């Protein structure tokens, strides 16, 4: 073995560039490779990966339910758990039947109970994952929160909780949040979601538990924020906030928004419009808006106009229209003109507008999308432009939009646009040497292979740094309305 491979620093640089299958083989070659390899394999864990770690506790699950209590098991489990930095998409649920802990499609509460017993037995342990930085949990209700405390770590920075059921009140979330100041005092980002909040919750329990987290600066909750005033009196470091504003919600205190750098509003357009028009935003740079089945879509123009007037230095704007399939067909959607005022944001770097899920009304406005996209192409600071609209062929933007973006937006890195490539222009004299690496075009139909080659040459001339090896034409019917070309340029 070369002497260079005996240096931990070199191994830490080499291992991240290997495929997972190669890393798994390398971990078995020599003991010096083992630690950096398992750190790579188990640093970011989803539910499947985490079960591989916990299989150490249940080596022969087919014969017994209880976990292995040997010292050897404890040492191995501690070694693997110390590698975990991020845990995503973990579902915690209590099953009515006596199932084996690793046979379920979720994390059983019995497994959390066994982990708690393991920590109590080992005097050197205070938590399961001592280096855990990010934790995303999905729970049926909050009854599992006391057991989930074993997953918290002293260095935890981001915590995301999602509650799936609606028939339970949140009686455990208060004590759980109170425990965070002891288990995870450095917590900086807390996000809480779930349909359960639509039935009314005493949010003071949540706020009281969070107010002692001095480093908390990002809070996203399904509440209107009215109970946050007393919380902010004790915690002035909050610079990112997410709120749910329902039609029956009262207007949150306007002092909440003055010092924010990032704001995400969900719910009623009527309530959101009232907040945007009344509040002052001294430091806001990121604005995100999410609406389900809007009943006042005409307010979108007022919201965007007020936002441009009050926050001309905005760098990131995101709008998403979501909802269920039953109501999409009968729900109005904002007009493309409602977003025209955003062209005045001279510092805009990210523009993401999502109105394209199946079931929404199809836009048939010829020329309007082409015009507004050309206006956005004049923003030289633009880095990401995503325009998710469901359009008929006559409403698609022309290829000239891509030419304008290549000429005027030198920093552009990612694009998703509804562009018509049925008649691509000549590639001669077009700008080149652009840094764009990710491109997705939807809504364009190609009728023959010759036109497909022309489209490929046209795009290559504009964005030569984009990989075209996997260029594919996917001519497929969408709702029997139009044909679409899906073009994906991988990073």
UniProtKB/TrEMBL annotation:
It comes from the Eukaryota. This is Uncharacterized protein. It comes from Calocera cornea HHB12733.
